[in-house]
Automatic annotation (TrEMBL):
It is a multi-pass membrane protein. Pfam families: MFS_1. The chain crosses the membrane at residues 12-31, 43-67, 74-93, 99-118, 139-159, 165-186, 220-241, 261-283, 295-314, 320-345, 357-376, 388-405. Residues 9-410 form the Major facilitator superfamily (MFS) profile domain. It comes from Blautia celeris. Keywords: Cell membrane, Membrane, Transmembrane, Transmembrane helix, Transport. It is found in: Cell membrane. This is MFS transporter.
Amino acid sequence: MKKNGFSRDFTLVVIGQIISLFGNAVVRFALPLHLLNISQSPALYGLVSALAFLPLLIMSPLGGVIADRVNKRNIMVVLDFTTAGIILLFLLLSRQVNLVALILVTLILLFSISGLYQPSVQASMPFLVPEEKLVQANAMINTVSSLAGLLGPVLGGIFYSMKGIHVVLAISMVCFFLSAVMEIFIRIPFVKRETDRGAFRIIFGDLKESVRFIAKSQKVIGKVTVIIAFVNLFISSLLIIGLPVLCTQVLEFRGADPNQMYGYLSGIMAFGGIAGGISAGVLGSRIKIGDTWKLILGVALLMFPMGGILSSAVPDMGKYMVLAAGAFLMMLCATLFTVQTMSFIQIKTPGHLIGKVISWVMAIATCSQPLGQAVYGVVFEQARGQEWAIFAAAGIASIIVSLYLRKIWIAEGMLDGGTEVVSGAYK
């Protein structure tokens, strides 16, 4: 039964997410960075990152179907135990096989699991908290994710520089194991859906039903999903590929390890996410969904000082500080945008479709990210010394995206006094 506040089970989900996402942040920080260090090739780094990301697109819709038909708690437990086992296998094989191939396979498996895992977490929210608490609950989950992203890269960078990749992965493995144990005690309401269809027909039928809902019943969800895809293409991919390249190959830090400096930068970005999550929880009842285009516009405008500083005569540490400040503000705006749009989608979607619809949103929204990562990897390798131009081009493209989102909200009657979040519900 839903209560007026946050339940014990929601609290356990949050604690489990803290542990699991910390382990996830550590391993996703360390493995790609280790690849960049041993290869010194931004193009290879971008290509491997893109290939590893592709399974997420395939597994997310399947994860949505599973989330709506299997106990969500069991999904979380099994997948966290599986992740711990994959990392253990990496540690056992790392000195016996080709390391680049092993990193690629490991990242593919981890992203595949993430595609199955995240729909269960998002789909469980409406069953654990009342509707008027959804914005705050999503804000809390995003804050937890950002907190893990803050501590994971910072501590991961320190341990990676001091102890190497194996110690970092061992820490991550322990985190996933502890998270799985914690999640065993979660109780998420679940009613088994009886059916006489085979597994293939169930999957196909469920996916068809959710696609029909997005394409016909709630077209605005599809439009917003396309916007998120463009944000991932122009902005997220740039940060994922560009910042580690800048820290390890472009900027020079006297007396400081580049890997640690990138770890600190990742932590600053995560701190921006925490600030955004807290702001969403505090301001959720006063932020209009129609104003979210301004958040993307703010992120776009931040690209110009970040790119401009790279072409200036400012010392590299000064450039680093500007990049850090810009990344902090970008993550703050991006988190506010994510919380508001995810809550909007959850409220617009019937309970029996939430897992599948969320999974389609995640799959479609992220389909552009592998392409962006591959392209940015090549661009950063070919445009050495002209990195400012990459940021400027991304900024212009993102401005266009923000204006298109504004057009969508105007068409839906959600701008200038239209739909807004009131006590967690869209009126």
